[in-house]
Amino acid sequence: MAAISSNLLFISFILYLVATLFFGGSIKDKKTGNEKEGTNRWGKIAVLLTIVGFISQLGYFITRWIAAGHAPVSNMFEFTTFFGMALVGAFIVIYFIYRTTLLGLFTMPVAILVIAYASMFPKDITPLIPALQSYWLHIHVTTAAIGEAILAISFAAGLIYLVKAIDQTKSSKQTFWLEMVMFALVAVLGFVAVSSIFSGMGYHEKFNWIDKHKNEAVVEYTMPAISGPHEGDLLTKGGFSPLFEVPAFINAKKLNTVIWSLMAGLVIYGLIRLILRKRIAAALKPIVKNIKLDFVDEISYRSVLIGFPVFTLGALIFAMIWAQMAWSRFWGWDPKEVWALITWLFYAAFLHLRLSKGWHGEKSAWLAVIGFVIIMFNLVAVNLVIAGLHSYAGS
Amino acid sequence: MNDVKCECGHVNPHGTVLCEACGKELMIGTITDQLIDMRYEGSARRSQTYNKTIIDKIWNFFSSVKVGVWLIIITLVASSLGTILPQEMYIDLPADVYYEQEYGWFGKLYYQLGFNNLYGSWWYLILIAMIGISLVICSLDRVVPLYKALKAQRVTRHEGFLKRQRVFGVNDVVSESDLTVIKKQLKERHYHIREENGDVLAEKGRFSRWGPYVNHVGLIIFLFGGMLRFIPGMYVNEDLWVREGETAIVPETDGQFYLHNNKFILEHYDKNKDKTFEKAINKAGEVVKNYQSNVVLYKRVGQNLPGEKPNLKKIKDYKVRVNLPLQYEGYSVFQASFRNELNKMSFALTNKQTNISNGELTIDLRDPQMKYDLGKGYSVEILNYFPDFEFAKNGEPTTKSRIPNNPAFVFRMVTPDKPKGETSFVAIKQTIEPFGDNRYKMTFKGIETTNVSGFIVRKDSTLWAIILGGIIFMIGVIQGAYWNHRRIWIQNKNGQVWIAAHTNKNWYGLKREIEGVLADTKLSVPIDQAQIEENEKGGV
After folding, report:
1. Is the ipTM of this complex over 0.95?
2. Best mutation site among B36, B76, B293, B461 for testing chain A: the one with the most A CBs within 10 Å?
3. Mean pLDDT score of chain A, rounded to an integer?
4. Whole-angstrom Cα distance, residue B490 to residue B497?
């Protein structure tokens, strides 16, 4: 059952990739990317592939659930994969409201990156620790992920808006930050690339090091150490010696992964720039030329409106109910809880600015981007860097 | 202050921008944009009208959405600061030691700034309180005039009002049959239709306008619930440790309830049984499957007299597990932790030279006897007992607590050849013979341990407000987010038929709907004037 499950996931991943190509084709082929015309044949195939991929991933989800005996949302791989699936699902729903394939062209790559990122984490089926043994695991985690996914659609729409609206003929703060967003996406690709390469090589090296309590410890690297652990002593023969050492309170291994990912990201980004000979955002501009700004602006806003109640329900209300049962208090200022609150406050501010201060268009699109950054921070950094009660998710 | 009478005859409160009934601009020159600002229907909001007294100023400050958003942003940033390092409730050491020891100068600074208990700090609570005040005032400032304006609105609207709606169009000739079709179409789309002199107002989803105010009410109730916790007795949160086989009074229940711990169970996943998890278990080592305490809950019957054994009535057997607390009369007992405690220690009274044992004794560390008779003239007395032994600063042995973490004894060993007895101080891994060389010693034979279950006893009488607030908030937020307030005006002006439309959000949906409504008529679809503006600016 577990084998069927991973095959289904792989199939859906490939389908998403192919669907993205078709989404690309549907834009080039079409004269105007707007409300009134129906979707062309490329677009129809793309949407069909997306739906088939989604069903395949749903199959992965169900078979893995059967194999594990619990919903596969209990560790980093499972949760992030589910988030990717929710993102595709949210796109399908929004697509059938607004019928624009351009949104698919921007959403699907993000979903693909999310799933690729997820598969860099251990894929073993893990048993549930006592705190997780509750049906609220399924309810809370899935609802929260779906809410975040719908909010992420507003990021994709916001990105389209910014690519179209920002003047690329001269460099400005806007072009810089938009390009940073593009680079961040490329850096995720960099992480996936280096992780896959080194794990494919089976790279390992071990260090003895001194932790912050002055105890000796052993750490195993799966990538050549650029940043070495505190007073590290390389045990593996022929292993790569660190270029520098970090203080004991910094996790050298995680920092090393970040350095490798950024380097790989820079290399990939450099290559892209070399080929395109302009900013990525500038290169994307012709693709979005036919969409109307206020139309994507509305998609972005609608996604927030649809996602916000779902997020509130899943990430705060269901979370509180479960926390009351498992930890005896509905709120305990655990970092993950706080970041869910921060996300919620941010989107609350977004809605108020939009409703009352008239922050439409570009301002609103930037806010959608920042919101997505906060969601990603909660998913990645809070799990991996800030340890807390939710840290089991980081393994 | 004088009310303002509009030319249509409607009397508006002072400060009204657009006539509540017909929408005519009352404050000439206040609107400079080409399109009307339709937020709050141009009604007279207190905050926009009065600014004289100190109360006006406070009201105006808190009624501003700008201030509200700033409060949200400040709270957001402040909250994030508290996640940089663990909060005080999640650390094991005293805060003044922990932060500096673990995180150096940064940790020390963090502690000095009081960020170790950020969410309980006075300034964080003030921030939350200000958000609460802002919620109340913002809502009152808007909801009352908005309600009045929507209630007073008339079907026939002023020309200026219609012309400057975002969606607007003009038709020269309209047949009666077309109008009938339109009305039928609108009704099918669940519009509520009002007519006046041949003018039509179609409206739906007005209740979604109340969504924000409903969810604000929910939030206020939620915050009120959070405040209730500060009232004594509303909130009980106590730790309770109960050893296996023992009964303890449940704290904060006036000695009414007793909890007996039959057994504590700790289970791990077995990789041979749970084959699915084999790989994960191999990587992680041991993974806990279950923490469980089998307990019995008792209730005291009758009055409790000091010194007298309470008369207990069994209420129920329960297996307390994580996620499955024992609940009774508003109290909940949660499985929170456990520890393993020394219970019994065994020694043999041994002749040092021959190493022959002259009998063994087992000491109950919680209830040691004064004297253990080993027969044949051998006996051991306990002169002194330190359950949690350490040397005090003056060099005297002392005990840190009554929990036998590190038991130590002063024994007197009485034997046939030493009838007066020899004294020996025995602690774990050390023996001191204070009065010279002894002939006998106490040889350590073994220990027995017992499990102690750690419970949290909780009573939270504030939950009803939290739950109610949460439910109302969700209703309000869904009401506001998933429905739209749409209005379509079809009116006769200057021998033409004007169509104007407004929605509080989702213009795309509104335009699609109008297209549908007008599809089978000869009327032209009104245009989106905001898009024209955008095009003129060269934004597209």
Report:
1. no
2. B76
3. 89
4. 7
